[in-house]
Amino acid sequence: MKLIKAIIKPHMLEEVKEALAELGITGMTVYEVKGYGRQKGHNELYRGAEYRIDFVPKIMMEVVVSSDIAAKVVKTINDSAKTGKIGDGKIFVIPVEESVRIRTGETGIESL
């Protein structure tokens, strides 16, 4: 199994969610986060004064999938979240050793 973490622009969440639903992904966890990468934040103008925004609002989503569809899920997230502009985000793939559904005790892929 693989844990896929994707950090994307907030307005892209619905499109990514719909694309993953078409793949049969039935669950995910979503966090509202702030951060910066190469862009190092941005400047905004408010009432005539310029302010530096160091941490940009983003969405971090996590989904655990079987290893055999992980590459397809990564491609789907990438294709649906891509705008071609700076700050589109990152995707990380992390191995998952075990998963347990607390309610039933199911383990592994069956617990997803």
Can you describe this structure?
- It is built from 2 helices and 6 strands, in the order βαββββαβ.
- It is an alpha+beta fold and 112 residues long.
- Strands 2-5-1-6 form a 4-stranded antiparallel beta sheet, covered by helices on one side. It has a two-stranded antiparallel sheet with strand order 3-4.
- Homotrimer.
Order of helices and strands: EHEEEEHE
Instruction: Tell me the number of structural domains.
Output: 1
Number of helices: 2
The proportion of strand residues reads 35-45%
Query: Distance between the terminal alpha carbons, to the nearest Å?
Result: 10 Å
Radius of gyration (Å):
17 Å
Which residues sit in consecutive blocks of at least 5 with pLDDT less than 50?
none
CATH class descriptor name: Alpha Beta
Features:
112 residues, alpha+beta, Alpha-Beta Plaits, 4-stranded antiparallel β-sheet, two-stranded antiparallel ribbon, 6 strands, 21% helix, elongated
Secondary-structure map with pairings?
Blueprint: E1 2-8, H1 13-23, E2 29-35, E3 42-46, E4 49-53, E5 56-65, H2 70-81, E6 89-95
Antiparallel strand pairs: 1-5, 1-6, 2-5, 3-4
